[in-house]
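Q: A reviewer asked whether we had any structural model of the full assembly, not just the individual parts. We don't, so I'm hoping you can provide one. Inputs are below.
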Amino acid sequence: MQDSNILRFTWRHSRKAQIYILFIVLASMPTYFLSLDLPKQIVNGPILGQGFEEPGAAQKFLHLKFSFFGFEFNLFDGIDLQRMQMLFALSGMFLTLIIINGLFKYYINTYKGRLGERMLRRIRFELVDKLLRFPVRHFRRVKSSEIASMVKDEVEPIGGFMGDAFVQPLFLGGQAMTAMAFILVQNLWLGLIALSMISVQFVIIPRLRRHLIRLGKERQITARQLAGRVGEIVEGINHVHVNDTSHYERADVSSRLAKIFYIRYELFQRKFFTKFLNNLLAQLTPFLFYVIGGYFALQGKIDVGQLVAVIAAYKDLPSPIKELIDWDQQRLDVQVKFAQVVEQFDVDSMLDESQQSLPGGPVPPLAFPVEVNNVVVSDDAGNTLLNRARLTIEKGQRIAVLGSSNSGADVLADTLVRLHVPDSGQVTFGGTDMFELNESFLGRRIGYSSGDVFLPQGTLRDSLLYALKHQPVAEREYSGPDQLARQSFIAEARETANSDLDFDADWLNFGHDVDPGERSYAVHRLLVGVLDACGLRDDVFTLGLRGKVDPELNPGFAERVLSARAILRQRMDELKLSGLIELFDPDTYANQATVGENLLFGTPVGDTFQPHNLMSNAYLHGILVKSGLEEMLVEKGIELAETTIGLFQDLPPDHELFNQLTFMDGERLPRYQALMRKVKQSGTASLAEDERSMLVELMFEYIEPQHRMGLVDADLKQKVLAARAAFKAELPEELREAISFYDPDNYNSAASVMDNLLMGRVTYGMARGPERVSDTVLSLLQELGLVDDVLGIGLEFDVGSGGKRLSSAQRQKVGLGRAIIKQPDLLVLNRVIGALDPRQQAAVVNDVMRLVNAQEDPPTVIWVLTNASLASHFDTVCMVAEGKVVEFGNREQLAEKKGAYAKLLEG
Amino acid sequence: MLLKDEVELLSRVSLFQGMQPSQLKLLAFTSKRLTFEQGDMLFMQNDPGDAAYVVLSGKAEVVIKSHDREVVLATLEKNAIIGEIAILCDVPRTAGVRAATRLETLCIEKEHMLKLIKEFPSMATALMQVLAERLANTTAALSECRSELSTLRGA
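A: Here is a predicted structure for the entire assembly that you could use as a starting point for your response.
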């Protein structure tokens, strides 16, 4: 957007549409004028009887004629109509004109709306397009939420205005002028009065509004800064908690809100005062009409019909005038906003568009040697990070880069992928300056990751495959309505200079040479290979066991889990481990589960049957009361509450030992104490329904082997089993979706894979029980070849906003995976696994190097290490200190020499 | 075995004598029941000590390794407490303990024990008395040993 003038910008991008709509507006004018003229004809003609003075007189209706240089042309002679007939005919015509006017308005508004939306789309896309070409350095200064607020909110009114940019003033101006001309034709004096009042409005109002523009600009900037601050709070929320700065943040937000409040308040005051003045001026004119017009009418200088028509026309006049003034106001307002946003997005040394152009064919391999020639890099504060660094990297080298944290080693790595721009010196690939290379070379032929990994929300699979999505590899085939929708999408996208690449096409730049039937398997193998090398396999496997599978989408898997379940039972028996799992059986009470779980005997789907909602569910409550279980649970609940109160009453409510208590917490204890007092004083019968429910809820969480109070006896078990059966049998249709029952013979889609394998609970209190069970499960899954499927499920794990559902070590491993999944020519890794413990780091370096070496054309590797002992996996060592490469060469030879590396090895 | 039986049992453990019944109850409740199969190790020699165990049923063997040979030092039965020193101070296990039969225990975690002591100073006093008694006994035994030793040397 070189243009920060909004009218010029709009004209340039929507000229044709603007001209077209102007014509439509002009075409709508005659009917508008006619509809103004008609009331006069109706009043003067049929109503007051002009031309119908004699009984039976008739007038011509629709007599169309016009004169041209003195010649009279008769287009239509018209029809003779009598007075009453004329009244209906003219009124009918009036109605028709109103409808035509309305239709014009409807068409024009829709067209303008679309025009505005298109311009909005164009601006937003252009902003994001610029964002994607900002120099990396620029992002150190901007807040993400401020940019987001500009793209999303600030340009919104701009788009709305653009639809109206030319049409509105013309339409309204035309209307106002028509009305004005009409009034002038009717009566010159009345017309002049109206005209002078309007001029006053036009002069005074914009002056009053000048302040509004300034305030509007302030409001925009403060609101944007607020968005930026809120974004910062969200991103740094952990630091708020660990430093107890929540009050500082509150005060900050409060002071910003105060600023916004006062700006807005002043804005309102001025706005409504302007409105008041505007209205007053507008109302003054009719006052003058009544007085002066009335005077003339009484004098007989104008007829009453004329006065009525003038007043009617004037009624229509203020609103176009007012809207015209509004338009001008909006223009100024939006111009300020537009200029603001354009200025923010006008950044120096932006990446040229050609650098991101889509390559027509496959990207050729990276050219070697990579040469770093006297490169100087400094930061914003002017500190020198790299000081005339020199380095030549030959194809196939495995380079370990070593250096302390401010040696410049990481800057060197980042410079190789253009994340720093050298102040002087250059980096060349096979002799070509890297800044002349298209981004596709760097992005496809170089794999890069640093320890700081940001993952957009999505599945783990998406996160890893992201690095392979450079451009669509195949068009997606559409047919029928989808095809039309796609064509319309392309047309609209081109209309607004948007990208017309299909987001739903196949973007995965891998395995399109493989047979289509085997492609998904090839992708899976690729992913699993990467998981292995990055030490992610165990993490993903655990996620997979915790994941849920829809058996309808994956019937084969569910089937195999069911057979694994059977084999697992057998296996546990053989290993004499069956005591470690208590299996779920619809006809048996599961001792290891809570009373509530035993009752439902299924996995809740959604909120309805979550433990805290159980007692408020009328259906379940009915079952409990009917089966007599409610009565029993209330009694047992009293016993449980008494014992618990006895145990814990001496502890403060926030004592850590309350964590041990699964069914009550310190906060709720006093409520149960009050309940117990009531029971003691007035007996159980005195309890209200919600109080009884409190006791039942307590019992719902009770597990006999864990809590050991002897509350679950044979009688209770029998009653629970009966209620369980009744609950399932009578479950009304609308609640069926809210629970997925345990079934030893079927797959439970609401439960995790692990729960489905066990279909039971690990017995409480068996030493090493959980470990033994999971070891047995793992070896069984391996034998049955189900590990890959579980990994596949684990890959569907949602990593959360910014990847925050993963640990920082896991995020780093995913970042590393992204770098190697490309099978690049050059692998640049920058302190990539610092969050891992040393043992894991060694394993990951070893596995990654093995995977990389096994590739057909192994890449050149430059790895900035955090730990010098890991250098043994590399043939070449590059020592960096004080922004310079101080030592570079064969690792073994360097170890012999008495240099920096040898010193580092000695420690 | 129910909570109240466990309380009953804990009250017979010398270390906990002198503690209020309500404190014993809380101790029992916050402890967890842990069952070992025959041959399972409760802990190994030199492991960091994080819990004490009270035998509810079955037998446990105290074993140490010396010169690659395993020596069974003692066999413990119902009501015995194992590794109680570990829940009062930070020392590694001086010996390993193994389940000689199927062994049911009540596992008292150090963390919980310390929290209870913090909350109820009277518990600390009771513990101190028991420990002091033991110390007195040990000291008496030691001086008896010493005098016997000097008698032997003198002879």
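A: Points you may want to mention in the reply: Chain A has a mean pLDDT of 85. The interface with chain B takes residues 643, 646-648, 650-651, 655-657, 660, 705-710, 764-768 of chain A (CB under 8 Å).
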